[in-house]
């Protein structure tokens, strides 16, 4: 009997979300490496655009999970199962917080997206607000990456040490005969 798996759309939404989060973090951490002027404006515009894309993917993923997406009981038993469930919930909350703070960050700072679309700053002279939103966005982003790293490590630990086929639930089939829970 093939192990129960998430449906194809849930699996691809998982890995698309993971790829966008990691790309956003890497780009966010390196925006200040770009020389001032057009290179930095383009780097920041790319970050904001990919961030807006993640916001859309995330809303769709929540809608899909709440409607037709497969929902499997978290892997493991006892405390590990509760921990896995709590980690999944925490990852959803962290993505929501980082994206919401990112949108707020772009708004309080104002920006010039690819020199094509001007975002006028929410309160241009409010330096304190700008700094606190910027810092909160950076903290949320770093916390999300740490959580995602622990989550990934837990998935590998289950798979390679506990021999529980949890990774197989979320890996694209790629020709393996697997069955998703209807
Ligand atoms: C999970 C998603 C995201 C991650 C992981 C992320 C990560 C980061 C990081 C690490 C920084 C640099 C913080 C610093 O040290 O100063 C940053 C800056 C920024 N982020 Fe995000 N971000 C995300 C989503 C977004 C979204 C959705 C937006 C807006 C639509 C956004 C807008 C910004 C802006 C405007 C900056 C400041 C750039 C600068 O300092 O020039 N971010 N982000
Ligand atoms: C930024 C990166 C990531 C985020 C935000 C993330 C988020 C999530 C979330 C929210 C779930 C729960 C799915 C649900 O029930 O709706 C999940 C499940 C899962 N993730 Fe990730 N993930 C990330 C990266 C990874 C990586 C790198 C791996 C593997 C190395 C991984 C392996 C898994 C597995 C195996 C499951 C299924 C767990 C189970 O059914 O108990 N994830 N992920």
Features:
about 180 residues; mainly alpha; Fumarate Reductase Cytochrome B subunit; 5 helices; 4 strands; about 65% helix; binds protoporphyrin IX containing FE
Number of domains: 1
End-to-end C-alpha gap: 15 Å
The ordered string of helix (H) and strand (E) elements is EHHHEEHHE
Any idea what the shape is?
elongated
Helix content range: 55-70%
> If helices are DSSP runs of H or I spanning 4 or more residues, what is the number of helices?
5
Share in β-strands: 5-15%
Small molecules (ligands, ions, cofactors) in the structure: protoporphyrin IX containing FE
- Report the CATH architecture: Up-down Bundle
**Lateral strand order in the biggest sheet:** 1-4
Structural class: mainly alpha
Low-pLDDT sequence parts: 177-182
What can you tell me about this protein's structure?
- The chain has 182 residues and is mostly helical.
- It has one domain (8-160): Up-down Bundle (Fumarate Reductase Cytochrome B subunit), CATH 1.20.950.
- A hairpin with a 3-residue loop joins strand 2 (111-113) and strand 3 (117-119).
- The longest helix has 34 residues, at 127-160.
- Strands 1-4 form a two-stranded parallel ribbon.
- It has helices at residues 8-30, 38-66, 78-109, 127-160, 167-170; strands spanning 4-5, 111-113, 117-119, 179-180.
- It contains five helices and four strands.
- Residues 21, 24-25, 28-29, 31, 44, 47-48, 51-52, 54-55, 95, 98-99, 102-103, 105-106, 109, 134, 137-138, 141, 144 line the site of one protoporphyrin IX containing FE.
């Amino acid at each position: 009997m093939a192990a129960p798996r998430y449906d194809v759309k849930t699996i691809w939404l998982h890995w698309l979300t993971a790829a966008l989060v990691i790309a956003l973090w890497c780009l966010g951490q390196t925006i200040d490496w770009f020389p001032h002027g057009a290179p930095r404006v383009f780097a920041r515009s790319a970050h904001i655009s990919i961030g807006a894309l993640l916001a859309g993917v995330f809303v769709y993923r929540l809608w899909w999970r709440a409607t037709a997406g497969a929902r499997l009981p978290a892997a493991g038993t006892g405390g590990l199962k509760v921990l896995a469930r709590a980690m999944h919930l925490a990852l959803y909350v962290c993505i929501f917080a980082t994206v919401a703070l990112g949108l707020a960050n772009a708004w309080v700072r104002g920006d010039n997206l690819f020199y094509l679309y001007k975002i006028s700053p929410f309160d241009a002279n409010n330096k304190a607000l700008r700094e606190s939103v910027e810092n909160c966005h950076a903290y949320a982003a770093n916390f999300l990456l740490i959580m995602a790293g622990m989550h990934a490590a837990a998935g590998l630990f289950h798979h390679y040490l506990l021999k529980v086929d949890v990774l197989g639930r979320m890996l694209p089939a790629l020709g393996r005969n697997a069955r998703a829970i209807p």
